[in-house]
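Whiteboard transcription, Tuesday session. T.W. wrote the structure tokens on the left side:
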């Protein structure tokens, strides 16, 4: 291809990108009730739903940031086009307040699928209102009102979908962590009998990119692994809490314990601590001293504990599943991630020793302290942080879960493809609950 042809093709791509941006800006401005004369009069820098230039737009107080594409809000391109072209979305231009959108969701939304019932080309009411919420740019308090709503579970779905699509990936777990065990039952699909809990719905948003016939934005690998490790840790905290209930009388003020600590910069790890205060279940408090239902890993009947980490001196509020007594054996020790990792390591070393691998590995570590293929030597391993064993244990479970998810189990991949006549009787859409046709054909 000649140089002039390459330049021409690049110019056409730039022109198409500019036209697409102007199209989304025009549709969003129409939906927000802004008078638009034509596409040529819409600047490319217009913020959807605001009708003014992005450089001059004044952000709301505590407005949530929009991550990614500011025109499609990371929705599938076809779905975004169908939303802005739909008659219902155009009718939403009369709504300009957050309370009006909330009222519309409460009255009209019956499921949380992206497509209307019985179709795969018409956007659903909830997703049209979700796009409208994107144009309004929700604030922190408004988002808390959505995900904690008691009026309708679909208001909560609207909030979780808003966060899943537009929130920065490194903030997803901080938003979702308190809701992965939410027990509220509802029907997210168009089938009213297919009910699940809000907690399961939130977990699927975090771990599955497929969502009822559309695709959610991909989460970066680093944040995705952190989320999956936190989910595994929550399940282990539940088991540990059940085991610790047999020793509740030993968790008293001044008791020497081990507690889990983690933050944005450090992975979950066990640290020596001392119980400073015990909070009954009805009087549990958070780190700021405010009343709370209970810390992570604790159920409604379990107490919470304010502990002081002896090595660093900082205080944290932990649940019954995030704490253990080192002097106790039995179920508490069996749930200790370091003990489990130690047993697995000893078993693997004994297995490999029969083949002479352990001897060669020791010689390689003496000659190369940092390892030949990226693994660290004996001295370097002793210098690792306290959370290394727990982190490796959690990561191992995450990798096992990922391998199980992609395994071809129970699926007939070698089945013969359906014939033309046989395919006519198959369902057209696997992800929507279609109503039965009234016609006899």
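and on the right, the sequence the group agreed on:
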């Amino acid at each position: 291809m000649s140089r002039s042809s390459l330049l021409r093709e690049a110019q056409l791509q730039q022109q198409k990108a500019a036209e697409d941006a102007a199209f989304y800006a025009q549709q969003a401005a129409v939906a927000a009730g802004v008078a638009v004369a034509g596409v040529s009069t819409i600047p490319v820098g217009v913020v959807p739903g605001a009708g003014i230039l992005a450089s001059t737009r004044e952000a709301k107080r505590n407005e949530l940031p929009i991550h990614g594409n500011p025109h499609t809000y990371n929705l599938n391109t076809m779905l975004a086009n169908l939303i802005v072209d739909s008659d219902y979305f155009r009718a939403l231009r009369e709504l300009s307040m957050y309370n009006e959108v909330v009222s519309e969701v409460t009255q009209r939304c019956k499921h949380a699928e992206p497509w209307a019932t019985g179709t795969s080309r018409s956007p659903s009411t909830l997703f049209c209102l979700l796009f409208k919420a994107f144009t309004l740019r929700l604030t922190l308090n408004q988002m808390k009102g959505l995900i904690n709503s008691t009026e309708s579970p679909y208001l909560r779905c609207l909030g979780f979908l808003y966060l899943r699509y537009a929130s920065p990936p490194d903030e997803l777990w901080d938003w979702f962590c308190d809701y992965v065990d939410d027990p509220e039952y509802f029907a997210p699909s168009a089938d009213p009998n297919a009910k699940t809990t809000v907690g399961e719905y939130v977990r699927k948003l975090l771990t599955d990119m497929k969502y009822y016939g559309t695709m959610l934005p991909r989460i970066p690998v680093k944040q995705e692994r952190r989320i999956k490790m936190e989910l595994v840790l929550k399940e282990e905290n539940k088991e540990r809490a059940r085991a610790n209930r047999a020793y509740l009388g030993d968790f008293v003020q001044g008791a020497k314990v081990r507690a889990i600590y983690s933050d944005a910069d450090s992975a979950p790890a066990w640290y020596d601590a001392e119980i400073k205060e015990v909070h009954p279940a009805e009087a549990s408090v958070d780190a700021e001293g405010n009343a709370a239902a209970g810390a992570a890993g604790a159920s409604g009947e379990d107490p919470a504990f304010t502990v002081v980490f002896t090595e660093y001196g900082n205080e944290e509020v932990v649940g019954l599943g995030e704490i253990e007594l080192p002097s106790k054996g039995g179920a508490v020790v069996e749930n200790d991630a370091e003990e489990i990792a130690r047993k697995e390591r000893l078993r693997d070393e004994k297995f490999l020793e029969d083949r002479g691998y352990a001897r060669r590995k020791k010689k390689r570590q003496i000659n190369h302290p940092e390892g030949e293929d990226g693994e660290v030597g004996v001295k370097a391993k002793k210098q690792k942080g306290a959370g290394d064993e727990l982190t490796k244990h959690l990561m191992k479970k995450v990798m096992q879960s990922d391998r199980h998810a992609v395994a071809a189990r129970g699926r007939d991949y070698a089945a013969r493809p359906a014939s033309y006549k046989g395919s006519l009787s198959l369902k057209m859409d696997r992800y929507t609950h279609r109503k039965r046709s009234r016609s006899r054909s």
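Someone added at the bottom: The mean pLDDT is 76.
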